[in-house]
Amino acid sequence: MFHPWGILRALTHVRLSWVVMPDGAPGRTNGVDRIWLNKGLDQVERRCALTHELIHVERKHTGCQPVAVEAEVRAEAARRLVTIDQLVKGLRWARSFPELADELWVTEEVLQDRFDHLTSKEWATLLAIELQQL
Length: 134
Known about the structure:
By secondary structure, the chain is mainly α. It has 7 helices and 3 strands; from the N terminus they run αβββαααααα. The protein has helices spanning 4-10, 43-58, 67-81, 84-91, 97-104, 108-116, 120-132; strands at residues 15-19, 27-29, 34-38. The longest helix is centred in the middle third of the chain and has 16 residues, at 43-58.
């Protein structure tokens, strides 16, 4: 399982602050050495938001990013948080989208991002698993 807190711990130059985001955003970063997370997030939301912001820091994104860049960061966060193996295992028994997200310890939005950005090979893997269950 991807562990963003371990990555944050290794990035000794990055400072994390807990704040109330006026716009309700889950997180923000300056892309260099600061990450702000919304105080109101639950554990799963914190994990997802921190992963997202760490990718911005990794890519040195400063300031507001274009929609296309945000979409790529969301896709990468979803890939890191949900591997194809985890997705396959969860799909074998989960009866609903919320149940699958809960099992994978991600928000439904992150899970949707993962599905939205599956590669052709990943779709083929999921289809093969589905056909085995018939």
